[in-house]
């Protein structure tokens, strides 16, 4: 069968489509015929340097997929751990620990389904970590991206008000998703701009970009909340002075998480699939994501 293997870490050219032996599932694994695979920033990082993931070449990246159980034909989706995975999803068939696979919502085609597990579970877990009540105001940095556009929808779904810092080109789309206050991300202090548009402090801030948490803390209310999925950098002392709780979130895979994601889908949450690529064009998909301005998700189809 065919798989996109990284034999020598490097840029997108390190992704090589080759024939590999068929996977043989262990007793706790399900053999899945892969139909579509979502592309994520962590894939790019792991192609260049797999040390954080704790793997060595050769390895296959791709951590979210939609496919069919090889034995029953049942439509499934999966999110596998980034750390320690050498047999990622960019292959015609993959043996996956059953704890990471679940039936996928029947209303989703494979391309849309493959765009959801990583970004959707991350968004959900960010939301779950912050004890916010309906009516609270949250500012999201990076709201137009893969995680961000889902987080906006989920936050609105639980009655939060959303402010977003983004590009001018993304304003209309963010507003359509439910963002009530948009601020230009290129201003020196987007959180200050959000507060001045709102007329009051923020209850929470979420950084999906990196480096945006510390500068936002002066604009979060005393006793408010702050979460990041990228880094905890800068002067965070204000979190002490203002009793703001800080959450570093690393997405946790698991069948229970996929069921919760399915409930979000049932409630109407959908990803925007900006572009699809064949398995042969995986390197182009990686180049496209690295170039930025995707405004949603890229998906590889098999
Ligand atoms: N901790 C975890 O479990 C976890 C899980 C998933 C993702 N992540 C990480 O979280 C980050 C976001 O993931 P993603 O899938 O949403 O990526 P993405 O689809 O590339 O989205 C990133 C968003 O941030 C925006 N952005 C980039 N540079 C910016 C800047 N200087 N100022 C403001 N906004 C900026 C991008 O806009 P443009 O592209 O238009 O510039 C885009 O809208 C990545 O670093 C990823 O590795 C972590």
Written overview of the protein:
By secondary structure, this protein is an alpha/beta fold. The protein has 2 domains: 2-116 and 271-301, Quinone Oxidoreductase, Chain A, domain 1 (Alpha-Beta Complex); 120-248, Rossmann fold (3-Layer(aba) Sandwich). The protein is built from 10 helices and 15 strands. It has helices at residues 41-48, 110-114, 117-129, 146-157, 171-177, 190-198, 213-216, 238-241, 255-266, 282-291, and strands spanning 2-6, 15-19, 29-39, 64-69, 75-79, 93-97, 101-103, 137-141, 161-166, 181-184, 202-207, 220-228, 245-248, 273-278, 297-301. Strands 3, 4, 5, 6, 7, 14 and 15 form a 7-stranded mixed sheet that branches. Strands 10-9-8-11-12-13 form a 6-stranded parallel sheet, with helices on both faces. Strand 8, helix 4 (146-157) and strand 9 form a beta-alpha-beta unit. It is globular and about 60 Å long. The mean pLDDT is 98. NADP nicotinamide-adenine-dinucleotide phosphate binds next to helix 1, helix 3 and helix 4.
At the fold tier of CATH, the topology name of the largest domain is: Quinone Oxidoreductase, Chain A, domain 1
Count of distinct strands: 15
User: Rough shape?
Assistant: globular
In percent terms, what proportion of residues is strand?
25-35%
Q: In which range does the helix fraction lie? A: 25-40%
Radius of gyration: 19 Å
Q: How confident overall, as mean pLDDT?
A: 98
* Global structural class: alpha/beta
Indicate the low-confidence ranges by residue numbers.
none
Measured distance between first and last alpha carbons: 12 Å
Largest sheet: 7 strands, mixed
Q: Give the SSE order as H and E letters.
A: EEEHEEEEHHEHEHEHEHEHEHEHE
Q: What top-tier CATH class of the largest domain fits best?
A: Alpha Beta
CATH architectural category of the largest domain: Alpha-Beta Complex
Question: What name goes with the CATH superfamily of the largest domain?
Answer: Medium-chain alcohol dehydrogenases, catalytic domain
- The domain tally reads 2
Alpha plus pi helix count? 10
Bound molecules: NADP nicotinamide-adenine-dinucleotide phosphate
């Amino acid at each position: 069968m065919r798989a996109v293997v990284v034999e020598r870490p490097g840029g997108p050219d390190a992704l090589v489509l080759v024939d590999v032996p068929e996977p043989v599932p262990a007793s706790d694994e399900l053999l899945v015929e892969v139909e579509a695979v979502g592309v994520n920033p962590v894939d790019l990082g792991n192609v260049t340097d797999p040390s954080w993931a704790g793997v060595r070449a050769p390895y296959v990246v791709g951590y979210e997929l939609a496919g069919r159980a090889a034995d029953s034909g049942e439509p499934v989706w999966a999110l596998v751990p980034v750390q320690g995975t050498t047999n990622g999803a960019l292959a015609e068939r993959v043996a996956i620990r059953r704890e990471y696979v679940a039936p996928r919502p029947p209303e989703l085609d494979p391309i849309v389904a493959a765009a959801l597990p990583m970004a959707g579970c991350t968004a959900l877990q960010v939301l779950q970590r912050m004890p916010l009540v309906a009516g609270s105001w949250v500012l999201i940095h990076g709201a137009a991206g893969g995680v961000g556009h889902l987080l906006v929808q989920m936050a609105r779904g639980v009655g939060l008000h959303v402010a977003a810092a983004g590009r001018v080109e993304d304003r209309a789309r963010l507003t359509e998703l439910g963002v009530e206050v948009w601020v230009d991300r290129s201003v020196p202090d987007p959180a200050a701009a959000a507060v001045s548009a709102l007329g009051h402090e923020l209850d929470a801030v979420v950084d999906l970009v990196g480096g945006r948490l510390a500068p936002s803390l002066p604009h979060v209310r005393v006793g408010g909340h702050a979460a990041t999925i990228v880094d905890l950098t800068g002067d965070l002392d204000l979190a002490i002075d203002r009793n703001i709780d800080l959450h570093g979130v690393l997405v946790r895979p698991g069948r229970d998480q996929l069921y919760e994601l399915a409930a979000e889908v049932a409630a109407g949450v959908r990803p925007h699939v900006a572009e699809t690529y064949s398995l042969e064009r995986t390197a182009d998909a990686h180049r496209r994501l690295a170039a930025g301005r995707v405004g949603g998700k890229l998906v590889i189809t098999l």
